[in-house]
Each structure stands twice: as C-alpha cells, then as structure tokens.
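Two proteins, back to back. First:
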Amino acid sequence: MESAFWANILRKKSEAEKNLSDILKRIPLFSGLNGRELKKVEQIVHLRNYRDQEVVFRQNEPGVGMYAIRSGKVDIVYDWGKPSARPLAHFETGDFFGELALLDEAPRSASAVAGEPSELIGLFRPDLLDLIERNPRLGVKIILPLLQLLGKRLRLTNERLHALSQSSVEEPEEVEP
C-alpha cells in the first residue's frame, strides 16, 4: 500500500498544473525562468473564475496586480457601464494584462470585464514584493522583463502619437494679398 506522503511526491502533474506552467512560460515576465523559479511563481499566483460580464477590476480603482487568462476572454473598456463606454483591447487565453500595477498602485485607466466565463491567473503586487524580498535574484529576473516590456510599449505609444500628430497637422493655407 502506497503512503499518502509518497503518492504526493511521486504523482504526475495534472493537466491543469501543466497548463498553468505553460501559460506562465508564455508570459514575457516569466519566459526566462527555469523550472524551479517558475514553481516559486506558481506558488504565489491566484486562480479565480469569472462569469460572463463580471468585472475583474474597475477604472479608477487602485491597481493591485496583473492577470493572465487561463481560459476565456477579457475586454478592457474605458467608461464601462456608461453610454460613453469604448472598448480598448480584447484578450484571450494565454494573454495577460494589468502588469503596470505590479510597479505602482496608481488608479486603473480602464475596466477589465470577462467577455465569457473565464479563469484568470492573478499575480498581485504584495505577493511579488514578498517574493523579491525573499529571493532578490528571482525578483530581478521578473522585474527586468517587465520594465523592458513597458519601455517597448512606451516607445510604440510615442510612435503612434507622433503619427497622429503628423496626420492632424494641416498645411497652412496661403493667403493672397
């Protein structure tokens, strides 16, 4: 008869556990982690199910963490619930969003709403800060890709703003004397 102790140690990973590892590895913040480091991240993430149209977080609430979609769809919406509501982004299984909240607790710039029944993986700032305190090297391996990603997004935003400003500048009309 096999003891519960050995059964827990020797058991194979369930499909759900494999899936969690696979999804985390696809997120740029965690793609450079080895198996042991990834396991430490898996221990601090939180899983939560959302119903269709359930709000994950609301615009103007303090940011507390990021989310990855294990299954389902999430829409990022400006002015959710108001007639002026505008969709900003659409995310599906394997995508992630809200990562800026890992660096600060500034208010969310938009709301996140489940577009169908969804299971999300949450990584929250206090858990990340605790991990950084306990294992600074692992923390740097997570924070550095986060900063690189944010830098890339900032450069892309600057390029888009520049393109918009160029297209909105009209040539002055010549006035005849």
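And the second protein:
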Amino acid sequence: MTGLRRLLSLAGLAATLALAAVATSAGTAFAYGRADHPLAQVEVSANCDNPSFPLCQPFPAGVGTGGIWYWVELDADGTGDLSGAACGHTVGGVGGPGGAGAGSIKGTATWQYTTLETAPPGAIFFGTFDPHDRYYAVTITDGSTWLIPTTTGHYAQKLANGVQLQITVAP
C-alpha cells in the first residue's frame, strides 16, 4: 500500500503543479508597451570600418569610421522608445588617425510613414528596399532620419568590405 500512496501523492503533486502553472499563465502576456499601442520593433546595426570607402571618410565628407546600433519600439502615435550605442573606431591602431570610444543612445524617437519618393530630405537609406515601397522614416536623438522597411523581416546590405548594415523589423 505504501507504493500506491506514494504514486497517488506524486500524481496529486503533479496535478497541483499543473493547475498552478495554468493559473499563473492564464492572462495574456504583453511583452512591451501595450498602452502605447506598439506597431513594430526595429533594430539597426551599421558599421563603417573601411576608411577608403567614401561613406567612411572623416566628417564632413563622410561619417568617419565606427558604428551604430539601436533598437526602437514604434508606437501608433508616431513616437517610440529608443535604446542603443554609437562608437568610433580607431584606424591604424591606438594613437592612429580617427577616434575611438562609445556612447549610449537613449530616449525617444519619432516616425512617420513614407515611400522612397516622398522620403524626408537627407534621410539615410542603404538600399534596404521594402517590397511594398513603404517605410518608417525614424528620427532618432541625434537628429538623423533612417528609412526602415515596414515589411517584417531581416535585411542586410554589404556596401563594401568593412561597410555593412543590418535591419530587423519585428511585430
């Protein structure tokens, strides 16, 4: 009889744990910002590490060597939450030309729908074409505006050795 009691006790414990798991997960999980009516999450990673490529030339001819990474949660009201980092890369080793270091990017962003034809002047576009020609024109804290495809997916562009862009758009 001891074996049967032990089996019934284990079955009871398993049933209790199963009920507890169902009770604690019965609600809908909202991963981020339900009240803000989020439309999409966007991640951008861009690196410019080839000093012979025109975009990587020192400012004002280009952006210099370095990179930027940021994540934006886009809300239905044309705003978004922003987090990321930007860094400068030293070319030629420590003490060589260029700058090195990183800085945090935090704050809010604004956005609007656009097409390539109606994009704001000066918007950054790296050839990440949306199959429906519909883009988020996302303005981040440094004042730059990036054209991000609205179609969910992963986009990657290699412009030259050491010059690449990756964008991920998720619901």
